[in-house]
Write a structure and sequence with these properties.
Length: 358
């Protein structure tokens, strides 16, 4: 039997959606046959897919502006039509799924990728969907060699890599005891989101009880690792809300997107020497503060993260898990993703290292 010929390095599914069009715009920077290409990359061919070819064509023109659009194949696909999804998977190494809410539209895409052995990345931020995909498809994905990674955007990657970056600053014999994270969304105008983002957030909250029940129904997971020193308290939930606009079908304007940014702080407290952690009534005597900063979270930072994850997957596939369903930190934490993000506008910085007075 002749081996299957893969035509495209990746296909962006839902490219005409509000986030999808920004993902396409970011991907074109790294497409080697595109006039926007910044440098040599592993990305030599892409296609875009969705329900409306006219909208996809218009999106390609928008994403290419002010340059003429490159020759990119437009493919019909619908998340309610499994045969169209299987056709996509047969033509590519990797699917970038931008069709949300994922609780409603994501499983058919994951299923098609897993059955075909195609790799899959998405920008989901819905915990119930992600955990259910891991439960239902991890073993099968391992058998077919399909690598499925959700949350390859702002929802998880800055937090996971930010925590890893903070932990790397603790050089032995120093050890961390707890790390608290704080995020600030900033804008010269207002912080906005489009309707699909709003719908995903509402569904995530609405189905929180389902997620708790699902977790209780699963076999007991591995025990938590031992934390040096006293058990950290849960702390308080801090909510801070500026002027937030949601529900627009058209999403924010380009000016609103360009005016926004984020900062995420990681405050790590621990012991200057691991031997102190075992002493009775010991308290942390050392603090390390790090920070992750970047552009607007939904339509700039998320496409940057997703595309960099895709480029690493394409170029370093042999060094990644053969297959399975994983969170991004497990797959991309050991790679050079942090350095790639740093080169593309998302910064990781050490703010301070200090002694905590008792």
């Amino acid at each position: 039997m002749e081996p299957k010929v893969t035509k495209f390095d990746l296909i962006i599914l839902g490219a005409s959606g509000f986030t999808g069009k920004y993902v396409l715009k970011e991907a074109l920077k790294f497409l080697n046959n595109s006039s926007q290409s910044q440098s040599q990359s592993p990305l030599n061919s892409i296609a875009i897919a969705g329900r409306n070819p006219t909208k996809l064509s218009q999106t390609l023109k928008w994403a290419s502006n002010p340059n003429p659009p490159p020759t990119i194949t437009i493919l019909p696909a619908d998340t309610s039509d499994p045969s169209s999804l299987r056709s996509l998977c047969s033509q590519t190494r990797l699917i970038l799924n931008c069709v949300g809410p994922f609780r409603l539209h994501g499983e058919t895409v994951v299923s098609a990728c897993v059955d075909s052995g195609c790799d899959y990345l998405d920008i989901c931020g819905e915990p119930e969907f992600m955990e259910r995909m891991e439960s239902d498809y991890h073993d099968r994905a391992g058998e077919t060699g399909s690598l499925v990674v959700s949350a390859c955007g702002f929802d998880s990657v800055p937090a996971e890599l930010g925590l890893l970056f903070n932990s790397l600053q603790w050089v032995g014999p120093a050890v961390p005891n707890r790390v608290e994270a704080y995020v600030s969304l900033e804008s010269r105008k207002r912080i906005v989101g489009n309707f699909a983002t709003y719908e995903s957030a509402v569904l995530g909250v609405a189905n929180a009880k389902d997620l708790q029940a699902f977790r209780r129904s699963r076999p007991r997971r591995r025990p938590r690792p031992q934390i040096p020193g006293p058990s950290p308290s849960k702390g308080q939930t801090i909510e801070h809300q500026k002027k937030i606009g949601f529900g627009q079908k058209n999403g924010p304007s380009e000016e609103e997107v360009e005016s926004a940014s984020f900062k995420m702080w990681f405050v790590g407290r621990g012991f200057s020497n691991e031997s102190l952690a075992s002493q009775e009534n010991s308290k942390p005597d050392m603090e390390i503060v790090t920070r992750v900063t970047g552009p607007e979270v939904g339509y700039v930072a998320t496409p940057i993260i997703l595309v960099q994850c895709a480029l690493i997957l394409l170029s370093q596939r042999k060094n990644l898990p053969k297959g399975g369903v994983y969170p991004p930190g497990i797959v991309f934490g050991p790679t050079d993703l942090q350095q790639k993000l740093q080169q593309n506008g998302i910064s990781f910085d050490v703010i301070s290292k200090s002694t905590i007075s008792s």
